[in-house]
Amino acid sequence: QVQLLESGGGLVQAGDSLRLSCATAGLNFDAYGMGWFRQVPDLEKDREFVAAITWNAGRTSYAPAVEGRFTISKNSAEKTLILQMTDVKPEDTALYYCAADRRAYYRDSVVDGVDHPNSYNHWGRGTQVTVSS
Q: Within 13 Å and on the Cβ side, how many CA atoms surround 96?
């Protein structure tokens, strides 16, 4: 059974940095691309794409709102997905989810759907990030 567990969220001030982690279990970590999504619970919106990384960590994709500030990476030794957040803004406030692709050795970029929630079939429960101004 695949399990994803996010951690590292918290309350920070605008301009601060934050590091989110997603520990995995039961997943062939090096065979699957992974992504970070976020959602503001009070708004009736779908989960918003944040960042994705290919199965071999050879390519990354970012939402325009976070490009240049966030970095996604994979730690294969620890089977952990990382999201390094810098210069955070109040609009980054959300519940952050990690997800694993539903297909192994597959998606490469936005063209392939790395930014769409339906491309992923394993999700964590989320970690809350709150940025004060």
A: 30
Residue with tokens 């192994």: 104
Exposure pattern of 67-90 as b/e (b: 16+ CB <10 Å)?
eeebbbebeeeebbbbbebeebee
Residue among 77, 100, 76, 114 nearest 1 (CA) = 100
Closest C-alpha to 33, from 18, 49, 47, 9 = 49
Q: Rounded to an integer, what distance in angstroms lies between the CA atom of residue 75 and that of residue 35?
A: 14
What's phi and psi for 117, nearest 5 deg? -55, -30
What is the bridge-based pairing of β-strands 18-25 and 32-39? unpaired
Each residue's pLDDT expressed in tens, for the chain with a length of 133 residues: 999 999 999 999 999 999 999 999 999 999 999 999 999 877 677 899 999 999 998 899 999 999 999 999 999 999 999 999 999 999 999 999 999 999 988 888 878 889 999 999 999 999 999 999 9
